[in-house]
Design brief:
Length: 483
């Protein structure tokens, strides 16, 4: 293979060009979606506007309740008469350390989720659903390829407009995934008119629940959750009981020996509307946040760079958001240390690393490329910014359409031995094996163009070539390439 050069690579335009950094700070806006809870619960979602106790608690002053109390006031999903609820509650209460870890993790997100439920008039038990789905871990990834706090599989995520690209996976985006999950739950409630069945469908799929209902109807049996339970897989059969067990613990934690962390009834984070590319590490540094905390709020970014754009949002605690804006105005270095390239031919990572003055391991790690794998033509990857070279930002269009395709590393050619047939000539053999006549003569020390029937010839053919693999004249299979 010839030495790596720019010719087979199309450099994608990236990074900030010289611009006043104060202007970058002025691009930033900070917003919060805080709103007071509605005074009434929409009966369309199972609420009871005629309940005096519920109505009274809804108008409590915001500062008089924490989020847990606010969640309790909005409980409206019917309890389930099943021993599974008690057994799941016993299981959770037997492990108070796990419950505390999960509720501490949840404290970042609960206010936002409850706000969104209040806006829609939906039962506040649903704010506890990520406890069952992911233990409130927005970076959770299951064996079924479900991702994020609400555990969307790829196809359902796309159905609810959660973008999944090389640079970003909105199934892990706190705002986008919460909106999508509540949209999905609203849809399921509209289909079944029952929150227990809607929740079962969220876990099992609406088609599965509908088929189970039809089966029971045909047999003259009821179609409530308990009646459908024998037809459900074990995971779904325990799914609603788990949620209602957590509800019972939140309703009366002391009864279960659980101490809930205080969660203030105010936004944990605000939204930064960021319009330019920035490294994740630099964004955390400007916000004066540990990288782990930054990623807990912004787990959707798949690469160490955040691609700027009108729809790009970064979540930060309010005080850190102000620090971010102040520090950004003083920043005198590039906001990103990465650029991108798109290869037009099959390329080895080692060759690209040499071109950009870095180690192959660096490129492999940042692009999630395993050892002994090479890039296929058309792949876009991140590489370190070349010193003293300026590029424009990676555009949203590049980020949305970038793909990476890999294949196992292998020799570029293979050595074979053939037997000359009656009608063979140097020209016909060269055409058949995609080589030149000069190469044939050189490999076999031929001084003339004539060949003899039965003569054996050595060839070095492209590894990808199928020529001669099924021919009766091929006598030797591939050997290691002569480098």
């Amino acid at each position: 293979m010839p030495p790596f050069s720019l010719s087979p690579i199309k450099l994608a335009l990236l990074l900030c060009i010289s611009a006043p950094l104060l202007g970058q700070a002025n691009d930033i806006t900070i917003s919060s979606t805080f709103m007071a809870p509605d005074a009434a619960i929409d009966p369309a979602f199972g609420g009871d506007t005629n309940n005096p106790e519920s109505a009274a608690t809804q108008v409590l002053e915001m500062e008089e309740v924490d989020v847990w109390a606010r969640i309790r006031t909005g409980f409206s999903i019917q309890d389930l008469d099943s021993p599974l609820v008690a057994s799941q509650a016993a299981r959770y209460s037997a492990n108070p350390e796990y419950f505390l870890r999960t509720t501490n993790r949840a404290s970042r997100y609960l206010f936002h989720v409850v706000q969104e439920l209040d806006k829609r008039g939906m039962p506040t038990e649903l704010a506890l659903l990520p406890f069952v789905e992911s233990a409130f871990n927005p970076e959770a990834y299951s064996s079924a390829k479900a991702a994020g706090m609400w555990q969307f599989i790829p196809s359902t995520g796309l159905m609810f407009k959660l973008k999944q690209t090389m640079f970003k996976d909105e199934r892990r985006d706190v705002l986008a995934s919460t909106d999508a999950a509540l949209n999905y739950l609203e849809k399921l409630y509209g289909m079944f008119g029952d929150w227990q069945l809607a929740l079962a469908a969220y876990n099992w799929g609406e088609g599965s629940v509908q088929r189970a209902m039809k089966k029971n109807e045909a047999a003259g049996k009821p179609t409530d959750f308990n009646s459908l339970s024998p037809l459900m897989p074990a995971e779904t059969r325990n799914y609603v009981p788990k949620l209602l067990a957590i509800k019972s613990i939140i309703a009366n934690p002391a009864q279960f020996g659980i101490n809930l962390p205080k969660v203030e009834n105010q936004p944990y984070f605000v939204t930064i509307n960021k319009t330019r590319n920035i490294d994740v590490k630099i964004a955390a540094q400007l916000a004066e946040l540990p990288i782990t905390e930054f990623k807990a709020l912004n787990p959707q970014f798949n690469r160490p760079i955040i691609i700027g754009g009108e729809k790009t949002r970064i979540l930060l605690p309010h005080d850190n958001a102000e620090k971010f804006k102040t520090n950004l105005a003083k920043w005198q270095r590039p906001l990103s240390t990465w650029t991108s390239i798109t290869v037009s031919t099959r390329e080895r990572i080692e060759n690209i690393a040499r071109m950009f003055g870095t180690q192959a391991e660096v490129i492999r790690e940042v692009n999630h490329i395993a050892q002994k794998m090479v890039l296929k033509a058309g792949s876009t990857i991140l590489v370190p910014k070349v010193i003293d070279t300026f590029y424009k930002d990676i555009t949203s269009d590049i980020a949305d359409n970038a793909t990476i395709a890999l294949e196992p590393d292998r020799p570029d050619s293979r050595r074979i031995m053939i037997k000359v047939g009656k009608r063979d000539s140097l020209s016909s053999i060269a055409d058949r094996y995609q080589v030149s006549i000069a190469q044939l003569k050189d490999w076999n020390n031929l001084s003339r163009d004539q060949l003899k029937f039965g003569q054996r010839l050595r060839l070095q053919v492209p590894f990808s070539s199928r020529a001669g693999r099924s021919s009766h004249r091929v006598k030797a299979a591939s050997k290691k390439r002569n480098r």
